[in-house]
UniProtKB/TrEMBL annotation:
PANTHER family: HIGH-AFFINITY BRANCHED-CHAIN AMINO ACID TRANSPORT PROTEIN BRAE, HIGH-AFFINITY BRANCHED-CHAIN AMINO ACID TRANSPORT SYSTEM PERMEASE. One of its GO terms (molecular function) is branched-chain amino acid transmembrane transporter activity. The chain crosses the membrane at residues 46-67, 73-95, 102-120, 126-148, 208-225, 259-282, 294-321, 333-352. It is found in: Cell membrane. One of its GO terms (cellular component) is plasma membrane. Pfam families: BPD_transp_2. Keywords: Cell membrane, Membrane, Transmembrane, Transmembrane helix. This is Unannotated protein. It is a multi-pass membrane protein. InterPro entries: ABC_transp_permease (IPR001851), LivM-like (IPR043428). Residues 369-390 are annotated as: Disordered. The keyword Glycoprotein does not apply.
Length: 390
């Protein structure tokens, strides 16, 4: 009798084993977009990426039947939409990849913009090309100085500190003569002309030139972050985001990698700030209010935290909708907020979430089960067995 009992596996273990095998089979049938993309031959992928990049560069001259706004579409692309995409990629490093809540990201955006303005017009005449890496470096230093004493905080406490940082930068700019006080800084240098790409030509030529520059920045940052995501740094960020205590127990130096996330995110935010300052050629403290931090965060949440393609779509939506609703005057942000609330009710995981929520019902059971299928999960691709909670 005892031998029969010992030789028979518990029902729960058997159920888990059967369900686990069915889960693997179902997950293989429902491969995510990323795994389908990886299944495409590398030459075909390179060709598709090249075609997409060419299409993006030619977008201002294609005159597509896009819903019109109250402003010129090329100017909208150059001054608002593409810089928002760049900012969203930077904030996604902090919020989406490392799982840290940052409510003062506009502070790094302002640091980059003011660094470029001071270097090129206010107190020095540094060449524009040299001022860009210096401004990005200053922004990264600001991220390190903010993160070093505060990244041991978590959750709401960290959010409050970052919120205060954004306001401190704005108030410092308003009260400092070095930063132009309330009057701001004007006559900021633009990039030098590159052949037919004229940054100092007509308004239309400037808009197209800055669009090309912004798209180039976005492409470089995107591929840099893509490589970083698949490296040891990216895997450490994922571990910290999912469970920081468990990551520490596994030997991950969580503080160091959180500091890296803050520094890299701050650098990308500063890069976007330099792009903005070079384009408008005049900045003052009112350009860096708290509502920008909220819009930046909304872009990441709307697109799907942790998914770079998703946050790019979220940034396009967040930057385009207020312009599309400009005819509503002062109430446009109210209706924009309503749209975001509806989106969060019906799609709380964002437009393109990092994980695909799958519902699987075993044939021999009436009890539904829910599992999280990670995009490109190596365990699923390799066919190893796993368990799921029924």
């Amino acid at each position: 009798m005892s031998q029969d009992i010992n030789s028979t596996p518990p029902p729960t273990a058997a159920a888990k084993s059967v369900f686990g095998s069915r889960f693997i089979a179902a997950a293989r049938r429902r491969r995510t977009i990323e795994t389908r993309w990886k299944a495409v031959p590398r030459p075909a992928r390179a060709l598709l990426v090249l075609v997409l990049v060419v299409f993006i560069y030619l977008l201002p001259s294609l005159h597509l039947p896009i819903i019109p706004t109250s402003s010129d579409f090329t100017a909208l692309l150059a001054m608002i939409i593409i810089p928002y995409v760049l900012v969203a990629l930077g904030l996604n490093v902090v919020v989406g990849m490392a799982g840290l809540l940052d409510l003062g990201y506009v502070g790094f955006y302002a640091v980059g913009a003011y660094s470029l303005a001071i270097l090129t017009s206010q107190h020095a005449t540094v060449p524009w090309l040299l001022s860009i890496p210096i401004s990005v470096g200053v922004s990264m230093l600001a991220g390190l100085l903010l993160g070093a004493p505060t990244l041991r905080l978590r959750g709401d406490y960290l959010a409050i500190v970052t919120l205060g940082f954004g306001e401190i930068i704005r108030l410092l700019a308003k009260s400092s003569s070095w930063m132009g006080e309330q009057s701001g800084i004007g006559n900021i240098k633009s990039p030098p002309n590159i052949g037919p790409i004229k940054f100092s030509g007509t308004i239309q030529e400037r808009n197209i030139a800055f669009y090309y520059l912004a798209v180039t920045f976005v492409i470089v940052v995107f591929f840099f972050l893509r490589r970083l995501e698949s490296s040891r740094v990216g895997r450490s960020w994922t571990a910290i985001r999912e469970d920081e205590d468990a990551a520490e127990l596994m030997g991950v130096p969580t503080f160091k990698f959180k500091l890296w996330a803050f520094a890299i995110g701050a650098g990308i935010g500063g890069l976007s700030g330099t792009l903005y300052a070079s384009n408008v050629r005049f900045i003052n403290p009112d350009n860096f209010q708290l509502k920008l931090s909220i819009l930046f965060l909304a872009a990441v949440v709307l697109g799907g935290p942790g998914n770079m393609v998703g946050v790019m779509f979220g940034a396009v939506a967040v930057s385009y909708l207020p312009e599309r609703l400009r005819f509503l005057n002062t109430s446009r942000y109210f209706w924009f907020g309503v749209v975001l609330m509806v989106m969060m009710v019906f799609r709380p995981q964002g437009l393109l979430p990092r994980k695909l929520r799958a519902r699987i019902k075993p044939r021999d059971s009436d009890v539904p089960a829910f599992v999280d299928v990670s995009e490109g999960d190596p365990d699923l691709e390799g066919g190893s067995h796993g368990t799921a909670t029924a």
